[in-house]
Write a sequence for this structure.
């Protein structure tokens, strides 16, 4: 079963673009949450990750801050 | 261990352009970089890169990357060069992941944001304090934010944030804003930007996240309630890993017109060098020069 993957991002952040590109290259389906101007989504992001910054990946509840390729790989079992 | 013709350190405008030229010269080379696009990727609106009347930083970085892909350039991403040494006529590079060897090197490692050095800066980094308005700006919609600095990058940040945030404060430690007149004018026109000239940040305060800053001018100390702090006080060159190469007082690598450093075989390009003016288009041009110089060096030495 594929793991549920959420990406909290903005359209302008370079590492968000890289992170999403990485997921696509590995054929991982994900839900993109554009937090720009979405206060509720920003609150959710801050509460989950304890910080204010994007990207944040939520892989089956495992929170990864930033585009950390190794952590993402290990969370996805790649 | 394989000895490459060339290793390019950095994948900003200078490093990427150098890599395209090196690929077209059919050199056996690789690119080692922490990121792609460098500072260009963090820029807001770019309106002075010829051929693009308007493009954003992330879009231009994407274009650069597509250009690299076209030539199947080997890129070691998320990798940081920690040491560069010469042994005979081979260069030894140590990164946080592996060791490499090459006959020549182009240093195009750019610059990074200077830190404020005040209480609370480290503690609240990524908890409201950031060095990248392009990345994190959209998280502060309808909030109060402070931009620290008074040059072009501070004005650029303020102009990005002015569209998003409720109130933008600019904290500038000189008597008047610097930067380009056209940008200063835009800042003055914006209804929700207040400028504090002659002011210094003393500390960043908050609980779990930033809740304010303390600033000081010659009339005393003032508290500002802000949820976001954007530090834009300038840049320092990423040149510490090369001990032996000659640098100026700012830490920028000294180069001549051919992008040669004082060490034969080591070339440098872009913002990490003492080239006058730091611009995307200049860095790109310098990168191409450095690659052609490296090619000439390899040919003359018959490597």
């Amino acid at each position: 079963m594929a793991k549920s993957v959420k990406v909290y991002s903005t359209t302008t952040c370079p590492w968000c673009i890289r992170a999403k590109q990485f997921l696509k290259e590995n054929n991982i389906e994900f839900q993109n949450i554009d937090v720009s101007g979405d206060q509720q989504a920003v609150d959710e992001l801050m509460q989950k990750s304890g910080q204010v910054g994007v990207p944040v990946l939520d892989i089956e509840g495992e929170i990864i801050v930033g585009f950390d390729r190794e952590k993402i790989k290990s969370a996805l079992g790649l | 261990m394989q000895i490459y013709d060339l290793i390019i350190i950095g994948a900003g405008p200078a490093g990427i352009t150098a890599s395209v030229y090196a690929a077209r010269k059919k050199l056996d080379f690789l690119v080692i970089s922490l990121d792609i696009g460098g500072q260009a990727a963090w820029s807001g609106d770019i309106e002075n890169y010829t051929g693009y009347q308007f493009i954003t930083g992330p879009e231009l970085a994407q274009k650069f990357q597509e250009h690299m892909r076209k030539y199947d350039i080997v890129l070691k991403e998320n990798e940081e060069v920690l040491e560069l040494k010469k042994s005979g006529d081979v260069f030894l590079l140590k990164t946080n992941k592996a060791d490499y060897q090459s006959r020549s090197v182009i240093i195009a490692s750019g610059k990074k944001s200077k830190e404020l050095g005040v209480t609370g800066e480290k503690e609240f980094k990524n908890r409201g304090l950031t060095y990248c308005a392009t990345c994190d700006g959209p998280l502060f919609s309808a909030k109060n934010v402070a931009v620290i600095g008074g040059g072009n990058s501070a004005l650029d940040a303020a102009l990005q944030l002015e569209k998003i945030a409720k109130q933008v404060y600019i904290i500038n430690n000189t008597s008047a804003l610097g930067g380009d007149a056209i940008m200063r004018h835009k800042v003055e026109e914006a209804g929700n930007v207040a400028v504090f000239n002659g002011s210094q940040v003393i500390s960043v305060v908050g609980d779990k996240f930033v809740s304010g800053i303390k600033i000081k001018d010659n009339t005393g100390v003032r508290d500002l309630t802000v949820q976001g702090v954007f530090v834009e006080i300038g840049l320092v060159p990423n040149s510490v890993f090369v001990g032996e190469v000659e640098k100026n007082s700012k830490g920028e690598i000294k180069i001549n017109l051919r992008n040669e450093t004082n060490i034969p075989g080591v070339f440098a390009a872009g913002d990490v060098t003492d080239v006058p003016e730091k611009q995307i288009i200049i860095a790109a041009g310098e990168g191409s020069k450095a690659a052609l110089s490296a090619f000439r060096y390899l040919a003359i030495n018959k490597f």
Q: What stands out?
A: Helices of chain B lie at 13-24, 57-70, 133-136, 152-162, 181-189, 280-300. Chain B has two domains: 3-113+235-300, 129-231. Chain B has six helices and 19 strands.
